[in-house]
Amino acid sequence: MSTHLLEARDLEIRFGGVVAADGVNLTIDEGKNLAIIGPNGAGKTTFLNICTGWLKPSRGQVFFLGEDVTRLPPRKIVQRGVARAFQIPQLFSEHTAMENLLIAVSAREGRQSPFLQMEAQPERDEMRELLDLVGCADVADARVDALSEGRRKLVDIAVALALKPRLLLMDEPTSGVASSEKFEIMDILVKALARADVTSVFVEHDMGIVKNYADEVAVWNAGEVQMRGTPDEILAHPDVIRDVIGEEAA
Amino acid sequence: MTIRHILPAIALLLIATIPFTAPALQILLTLALAKAIAVMGVTLLLRAGQVSFGHALFFGIAAYAAAFVAASSLDDLVVLLIAGTLGAAVSGLIVGLFVVRYRGIFFGMLNLAFSMIFWSVLEKFYHYTGGADGLRLPRPSVLGLSLERAPFELLLFYVTLGLTVALGWFVLRFLGSPVGQLFQTVKTNETRLEYLGISARTTLLKGYVLSAALCGTGGILVAVAQGIVTPSYAYWIRSGEMVFIAVLGGAGSIPGAVVGAVAYEVVRAYAAAFAADIWQLVLGVFLLAVILFAPGGLAGIYEGLANRLSRRDAPSANRKPAAKEVHS
């Protein structure tokens, strides 16, 4: 039996009366981009929060490469190779886009010397390529709090990629990005992920994106994985059309 | 080399000539520069968005450590500096383990609490600490040489000036390094920091120990210059003074800490002489004006002027972060 990249077993968590995860079981395998869809409040973001240690489930376990990471803090899980991009970008607002990436790379490399200056790190070119990859090379030297929300999301993804993760979890990567640019960006992103050997899981509301870029789709509903399959199967399923796509179209 | 660097260099040279051009100011500037080193510690924490209202703790610990060591046969300036700074750094590590768990007002108040506990210990354990009278710190030798008062004070002035420049340079290097940059992100986004695989507490602790060591070095120099250590070294007013100077000089600016300390001491000395009853009022109004009209402090005012002067030859936007506010 091969080890799954990530495996969630029977996760349960409640917030007051709301059950945000009610026995979630899910496996993620290397090289398959998984899209998570589902109505608002179905527990999609909660799932990402549990997988990265931000929330502790009241029941169940999370395994990364066969290791139980359920009780670990986010930083320990990140160190094992899971990176995250957020729905609301989490950046260092007083730094430029380039500096955000350089900070990420110094965290990755664990640099401690107070005499090496951040700008002098050898990964500068690598980071510039990464910014170029997400289409933000032109704003490399702009403070991120001066960027548009869409640009900030892309920089946020670049920061996550700068860590060279095995698994990248993205929460609505293209929300806030102009719809004319969404496909172009996803094209680049998916190619880059494949080249860097990064498996991705992304929460997505845009069915066009799901159809084109996901290898698999998991449907969330009321804290459960309702079904899982290829994009073609799932998006044609009457329940999904009623519960998820219907709501998105509305 | 732009005008931005030339003026501070000239100012430093002028200060270096003080013992010969204005000897009356020598001791005042020794104290001001020693305080500047301590204020750098407070300023450093401001860069991580944290205000400590208790950093006089480390100022006091180092001064008392120096006084205790001086009472032994090891009363050499170099030994005092090393022992006191180490004492401050170690206590910074111990206190830091507690305070880095908190942010904002809780961080500030917990620091204050630790410093006041230490102050009470100094006041009450008078068999060891001399109580409110404090301990005498006789003039130490310097690398084995016993100096007369005048040459010693001259030497102390230059040692303090040298340490101010060297430590200021070091802190700037630290802030520009990867570990220092991570330290500063505690101010802007701890969530992302955690998701970079970094512990915000550990990162903050590193900066905290450095800030404690800086306060300690400042404390020893003041103690040696004054020849006595008293509990007032660790009193909350001393901590408040450090925050005051840090904000006056430009919250978050290391050169600002030096400018602020010198300005503060000079204003205080002259205001006390010419307006003995209202000098605190003068300083208070001065600080109010700085916060309202120049939130970047004295360093911010200088930065603004330098930008205006050098706009022609340096169009590449000097992307200095906007005036940092004090989050308490």
Walk me through what this model shows:
Chain B: InterPro entries: ABC_transp_permease, LivM-like. Chain B: Keywords: Cell membrane, Membrane, Transmembrane, Transmembrane helix. Chain B: It holds the Pfam family BPD_transp_2. Chain B: This is Amino acid/amide ABC transporter membrane protein 2, HAAT family. Chain B: The chain crosses the membrane at residues 50-70, 77-99, 105-122, 155-175, 208-230, 242-266, 278-302. The complex is a heterodimer of chains A (250) and B (328). Chain A has 250 residues and is an alpha/beta fold. Chain A has a domain at 6-81 and 165-249: 3-Layer(aba) Sandwich (Rossmann fold). Chain A has 9 helices and 10 strands. Chain A has helices spanning 44-51, 74-79, 97-109, 124-133, 149-162, 179-195, 207-213, 231-236, 238-249; strands spanning 6-15, 18-28, 34-37, 59-64, 67-68, 82-85, 167-171, 199-203, 216-221, 224-229. Chain A has a 6-stranded mixed beta sheet with strand order 6-7-8-3-9-10. Chain A has a 4-stranded antiparallel beta sheet with strand order 2-1-4-5, covered by helices on one side. In chain A, helix 3 packs across helix 4 (124-133), helix 3 packs parallel to helix 5 and helix 4 (124-133) packs across helix 5. Chain A starts with 5 loop residues before the first strand and ends with a helix. The model of chain A has no long low-confidence stretch (mean pLDDT 90). Chain B is mainly alpha-helical. Chain B has one domain. Chain B is 73% helix and 1% strand. Chain B is built from 15 helices and 2 strands. Chain B has helices spanning 3-16, 18-21, 26-47, 56-71, 77-99, 104-124, 126-129, 149-176, 178-188, 190-194, 200-226, 236-250, 254-274, 279-293, 297-309; strands at residues 135-136, 228-229.
